[in-house]
Amino acid sequence: MDDAVLRRIQSDPNYLKLVKDRSSLGWTLSIIVLVIYYGYIALVAFAPGIIAAKVAGAITIGLILGAGLIVAAVILTGVYVLRANSEYDELTRAIVNANVPGGVR
After folding, report:
1. Which residue has the higher pLDDT, 64 or 101?
2. What phi, psi does 52 have (nearest 5°)?
3. Are 62 and 39 a contacting pair, CB within 8 Å?
4. pLDDT tens digit sequence for 19-53
5. Which of 41, 76, 36 is CA-nearest to residue 62?
6. Helix 89-99, helix 3-10: angle, nearest 10
7. b/e map of 27-49 (b: 16 or more CB within 10 Å)?
């Protein structure tokens, strides 16, 4: 790819929107995961009695919250994938079609 094509792509409004939106969503989801994870770790460190409380048999609140943390991470990954497969793929296709001879189908 030559410099002229690269500059044209980098100045494409669809490319600028793609970069801005992906970055914003990526940071937002990362912050959510970090807050959830460090919140769990803070509970373990500062409120071990809550984490150790038994719900039923050997199942504790900590175990339920830990499983919830994993489920939340999977759900947030799904949110990113759904957005990437809809909006981001369309923007990428528009960028390629506008800047590559013949485009993509």
Report:
1. 64
2. -85, -10
3. no
4. 999 999 999 999 999 999 999 999 999 999 999 99
5. 41
6. 140
7. eebeeeeeebeeebeebeeeeee
Report the mean per-residue pLDDT for the chain: 91
What average pLDDT does range 7-13 have in this prediction? 89
The DSSP annotation for 80-104 comes to HHHHIIIIIHHHHHHHHHHHSTT--
pTM as predicted: 0.77
Counting other chains too, the contacts that 76-82 makes at CB distance below 8 Å and 24 or more residues apart are: 76/29, 76/32, 76/33, 79/29, 80/25, 80/26, 80/29
Q: How far apart, in Å, are the Cα atoms of 13 and each of 39, 62, 91?
A: 39, 47, 10
Tokens of 88: 């981001």
Cβ 9 vs Cβ 100: under 8 Å: no
Q: What is the pLDDT of residue 98?
A: 85
Q: Per the structure block, which two tokens stand in for 17?
A: 């929107």
Which single residue is written with the structure tokens 């949110």?
A: 79
